[in-house]
Amino acid sequence: MYYIGIDLGGTNIAAGIVDEEGKILKKGSVPTGAHRHYTEIMKDMAQLSLDLVKECGLTLDDIHSVGIGSPGTPDNEKGMILYSNNIAFLNVPMREEIQKYIPKPVNIENDANCAAYGEYIAGGAKGTKISVTITLGTGIGGGIIIDGKIYTGAHHAGAELGHMVICVDGEQCTCGRRGCWEAYASATALIRMTREAAARDINGTIMKLVNGDISKIDAKTAFDAKRMGDSVGAAIVDKYVKYLAEGLVNVCNIFEPEVICIGGGVSKEGEYLLEPVRKLVYEKFYCKQVPMPKIIPAVLGNDAGIIGAALLAKQL
Amino acid sequence: MYYIGIDLGGTNIAAGIVDEEGKILKKGSVPTGAHRHYTEIMKDMAQLSLDLVKECGLTLDDIHSVGIGSPGTPDNEKGMILYSNNIAFLNVPMREEIQKYIPKPVNIENDANCAAYGEYIAGGAKGTKISVTITLGTGIGGGIIIDGKIYTGAHHAGAELGHMVICVDGEQCTCGRRGCWEAYASATALIRMTREAAARDINGTIMKLVNGDISKIDAKTAFDAKRMGDSVGAAIVDKYVKYLAEGLVNVCNIFEPEVICIGGGVSKEGEYLLEPVRKLVYEKFYCKQVPMPKIIPAVLGNDAGIIGAALLAKQL
């Protein structure tokens, strides 16, 4: 049997046909058009999936089930998205909508959890008992896999690792609290820190890198400046690494996972990011008598969400 | 069958004979004498247990197993305490020592985990799928129960909730990091904050409460001062409540438990502490679409550790 995996994002809908082992046979994407009514978005999610089934030379008889990774808080029992602020969903009957077009079981899960599950099924966390996947993007997504199952809390509202406060009364977070890890170690936070530093160093390397257009600063800019020997860039990167590491030490002290996979845009820096992060985490991890949790790049990239969503049926 | 539960503390060894339902038939305690060689301490643990068995009119034939809650990092596979800094243990063969006197299966677990498991078996978290027990004492102990099992991480080094940094670069913690929750919301932290405030308000209510002897300030003093209408005491309590709540919101966002049981010395303040804590936690919890985690006092007090240790065999 094959599985349809759909990764619903704010910008694009990505989908794939996935086999039992977590291999993607074929994948594709269409724009989300997040401003549209949910019925329109879900029609496109279904249509993309049906097209891929056809392109694989399969029929719906070959498909076991559909899995969807969505932003927000899903309720898989009811088949609904209770709430999302990324795409504005409130009590959206996602399963019902998809089943209008694809009469198969539909499982719904948070997108960060799907990515973590994908890394567990076919990526960097394969074969582990406990793993955590951290996605450094617009926010910080966290997914926790314990004994082959996604940990979500009593009503699917847990695993919000990005909304762990690491600085009481610190930076304002989108969730309403101040000082969340996400406000210090997401790509968005890194960009904010880089722009603030650039504004204070108007003739510096960072401003030269973006031809004086501060709005062009992205999550790569500070790293690029540091690579060029710029001390301002180096200071930003060091600060970012420190905040990222502090949150990761918390994750280690709380979960003691075998593996932490780091994904999302910022993780593209690879060892240039991870090597100093690892050093700090290992210095500060509470227990020195056990093997250190491995900190590695998420290996599946955007495919993790598709694979994890597709194989949701396997863990239920 | 009956179970022996031993709660090894820095000051006292407490033990009890416990039935299948988690009821204590008889309990007792002896001083730990923590400075002594571990063989002496464990001999006393065993002797206390054997005395209790006899006092219950039982023999070892009635005993299923022994469970021990110990400070530090246990390795139940090896039957050892890998490390503890509270009582100075390094690779101590606890199971072997106890079995010299009591030839029964011996399970070893961290003391905070035992307390959490006791609350799950017979206390405030009974019947829940996910619960967390927080002990506000010398440090902050955390115990996490998921689906009837103690969550400990890949090698028993997780669930160190007290060593979650909530203020990067904040107060020095005994673990070497700065800004751990424990450094702000343990009884020790509350006493430190009270003493600091008293030293600045030498003629105030707090100093009167301790007859001018700052060393007599304990975890109750600020609460007592607040109850008397003292603004300095009120400010300390408010600050303490805030830090306690910030950590609890983190716990909620990470685990989304059904119940959080609050134990340890400071929890004796009851609703005077918990009511304002609950208010802050519910204001700041990330997800508003699900039932709020209940925040309640741990109901078993010191018995939780004995009961949880005794019935460790049940969860394995």
Write structural notes for this entry.
2 copies of one chain form a homodimer. The first copy, chain A, is an alpha/beta fold. Chain A has 11 helices and 13 strands. Chain A has a 5-stranded mixed beta sheet with strand order 3-2-1-4-8, sandwiched between helices. In chain A, strands 11-10-9-12-13 form a 5-stranded mixed beta sheet. In chain A, strands 5-6-7 form a 3-stranded antiparallel beta sheet. Chains A and B meet through helix 8 of A and helix 8 of B. Chains A, B: It holds the Pfam family ROK. Chains A, B: One of its GO terms (molecular function) is glucokinase activity. Chains A, B: Keywords: ATP-binding, Kinase, Nucleotide-binding, Transferase.
